[in-house]
Fold this protein.
Amino acid sequence: MLVLLIIGFMASVALTSMSLALKDLSTSYLRYWARKGDVTSKSLYPLKSRGSAVLLTIELCRAIVVSGTLVLLASQLWNVFAWLIGAVILFAVFIVLGELFLKPLGIRLLVLFNSWLLGLSQILKFITNPLGRVFDRFLAEQPIIMTRSELTHNLASISPSDTDLSADELRILKHALSFGEKTVHDIMTPRSVVTSVKEDEVVSPLLLDELHKSGHSRFPVMSSNQEHALGLLYLRDLLEHKDHIKVSELMHSPIHYVNEDRELDHVLQAFLRTKQHMFLVVNGFAEVVGLVTIEDVVEQVLGKPIIDEFDKYDSMRDVADAKAKVVREQIKVVE
């Protein structure tokens, strides 16, 4: 009798572990890794893909084994005492050991008894299939809905070794999630370090050399008093024309503006719609405070600066901050 009790208890633990493990598995996860050739996923996917039929087969077997074990225990001890012992055992199995030991054990048992469970589920299909359809309808696996912050937090803890994504792909994913939260003000080049030309300047080798050294190909054209933007000057236009011609005769207009508070996804759509590569940035008072390029926007998705052979600085914002710091120090000295 003691042997039967031990066998019943061990069978109850095994069936419980398989039930817990099967409930916790994701169909889409198993399908993905099964296609990738993972041996364990290939064994488990057929069990999970049948919906609740296999799970109900395990639950029916568990109900029979647990009930039989408790009845056998009750026949050997006082009735109340037997049920008390059974309750303590069930609490230990289902609550205490469930998360720590039974799920990993259940995975191994599901793989080991894969064919047996599928065969038994087929035999009991007159019961498990109708009940399984009811369970699948009301207790179907719900899609995982995550907020931006939750997804960002989860990605932060993932390394390339945890997935088949490369380090570059993970970096782009992380920065793409924060893309919608950033505004033009966060990425623009401040006006203090913007290279611009005046409308009445005359094209000359000296001007061409200065503009070429800046590392840019497009320049805002400002009025003589530097208060208003009138257009854009392209470096290529200077190469195609002779000297001693005014900048105002070569500039392109109209110029496009964007508010510094606009989101980056809005600016990206604006770049694509207008087929422009540069916008001047204005504040709430319609004052020009900087400029933003499509390159600046793309850098936010890539998560790294796009540096070419003409760039003297990795970040013009850092240059602007350094200049502002010097000015603040000079103001302190004067005061």
About this structure: The radius of gyration is 35 Å. The longest helix spans residues 79-112. The chain has two domains: 2-138, 184-334.
